[in-house]
Amino acid sequence: MIEALKSEEIVNKFGGRFKLCTLIQQRLGQLMEGARPLVDRDGRSDLEVVIEEIMQDKITLDWDDAKLRPAASED
To answer: What is the pTM of this model?
Structure first.
């Protein structure tokens, strides 16, 4: 799972490493404060859960007000 961080795909998805790092930090903080994961934990660490949420497009960062939001549903 952490191998996904080495891929340029995940970096390009958010417009660079800085933005990706910001997204990861914000979501890790939420999980540490008790937020529910948006994917099955399956014994994974918080960091692994965050990476999986990103890879599945479950979270995004709203840069206008710098708040983490669930990704909009495409339904």
So the answer is: 0.74
